[in-house]
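Q&A log
Question type: sequence-to-structure
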Amino acid sequence: MYTFFVLQAALSLSIGGATFYFYTDSEDQYPEGPHFSASFFASTLGFVASGMSLLGLCTYTKYMKDWNYRSLILFSNILVTILSMLDVVMFLRLN
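Response status: OK
Response body:
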């Protein structure tokens, strides 16, 4: 089990810095971008992410507390993969 977590952490890609610039670049820097302010990106989106974490915790407590670890890890990895595809939609401006 620990080997899986180490490999998952080692093989995951982090694009947080690039994402920040994609969302906050000005119209001169990236004309097709969403042009969020840095304060909006840091505070509002952070607040929404915290709210979604609480929603996930409540969902686990109500519906998944009797699941085994293998099912939880499989479900959460599939869910994170699907939700990460929403970033691809945004980056390609398909929205």
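Response note: The radius of gyration is 17 Å.
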